Amino acid sequence: MSADGIPVLLLKTKSSPTDGYEEQFAAWKERRYIPDFIPVLEHKFKDDALEDIRELIIHKAFAASSDSAGSANYGGIIFTSQRAVEAFTIVVEGLRKDSSLSNDLLPASCFFYVVGPATARGLNSLQLECPIVGEESGNGDALAQFILSHYNEHHSSDPAQQKPGLLFLVGEQRRDIIPNTLQSDALDSKQRTQVDELVVYETGEMESFHSSFAETWIQNIRSGHLEQWVVIFSPTGCQALLEIWGLIDPATGRVKSDNKRVQDRRSSISAPEHQPRTYIATIGPTTKDFLVREFGFEPDIVSPKPSPEGLLEGIEEFMNHHPSE
């Protein structure tokens, strides 16, 4: 192991204002690991959607009317990505700058449902009165079940009053598990909850990813690091990654059958004579299944939980059972 620690290349955009992965790895055992971020995805916020959120807040869509017959349009907002939190943050900070935000517009009766610690941290930094719940769920399936139970329990005290819906801030590419679960025809009508999706950002692969990753990976080799980790957070960029390592067979589009492990092959790009061991982790089973299905490539580990703590746990367990030669 290098005296400077093992590089961990996190193929994601660094979260703002803080990133849980950076905090977790940088603080572990005298910097055994050195986290480094290489963005794969480029996110562009949709100005019209941000304006829609602003209008909903200003016109009290999340605040129950003082009229006893009135109710909020929405009883909460669902966040399943850091980008959605960032989009919402832009709107909230803009309203604060204009002195247009008050506690009654986003009150304690409006729940923020989040899928994990990263989304919770981002919303906590806004210091709003809205309760932030669901962060232990870990994925969309579990969060949907949590909302189903929590939201209906909260709105069961007065069956005569119409239950407000939920606003779901999403990207262009998303799963439908949450709206499908909450609006399922299999549910009793009183259990169903209207979910309105609002696309707040667009996503595509960054043009600079190929060169940025190649340069960082090679620099780590030239700096004397004999081991490094690459953490894949989504299927986007997987093909580019395998192409950089020279593992793709142009004839089949899959990993060359004679060798499927990155650390056992020479890269097609210009690398020093000594080849370090490069280990691959995926943040969840979906990306792992994509790699296996599309390219015939098996990562070294799948994070036991889609969180900084889970990823570190998985890497530590692997390293303890595969000591440096």
Question: What are the key terms here?
Answer:
single chain, 325 residues, alpha/beta, Rossmann fold, 2 domains, 6-stranded mixed beta sheet, 5-stranded parallel beta sheet, 10 helices, 11 strands, 34% helix, elongated
Detail the topology: elements first, then pairings.
Blueprint: E1 6-11, H1 20-26, E2 33-37, E3 41-45, H2 47-58, E4 74-79, H3 82-97, E5 111-114, H4 117-124, E6 132-133, H5 140-154, E7 165-171, H6 177-182, E8 195-205, H7 209-222, E9 227-232, H8 238-244, E10 277-282, H9 285-295, E11 301-302, H10 308-321
Parallel strand pairs: 1-2, 1-9, 4-5, 4-7, 5-6, 7-8, 9-10, 10-11
Antiparallel strand pairs: 3-8
Helix pairs in contact: 2-3, 3-4
Largest sheet: 6 strands, mixed
> N-to-C terminal Cα separation, in Å?
9 Å
Mind telling me the CATH class of the largest domain? Alpha Beta
Helix content class: 25-40%
3D architecture notes:
The chain has 325 residues and is of the alpha/beta class. It has 2 domains: 6-40 and 206-321, Rossmann fold; 44-203, 3-Layer(aba) Sandwich (Rossmann fold), CATH 3.40.50. 34% of the residues lie in helices and 18% in strands. It contains 10 helices and 11 strands. The chain has helices at residues 20-26, 47-58, 82-97, 117-124, 140-154, 177-182, 209-222, 238-244, 285-295, 308-321; strands at 6-11, 33-37, 41-45, 74-79, 111-114, 132-133, 165-171, 195-205, 227-232, 277-282, 301-302. Strands 3-8-7-4-5-6 form a 6-stranded mixed beta sheet. It has a 5-stranded parallel beta sheet with strand order 2-1-9-10-11, with helices on both faces. Helix 1 links the parallel strand 1 (6-11) and strand 2. Helix 2 packs across helix 3 (82-97) and helix 3 (82-97) packs parallel to helix 4 (117-124). The N and C termini lie close together (9 Å). 34% of the residues are buried. Residues 66-70 and 262-273 have low confidence and may be disordered.
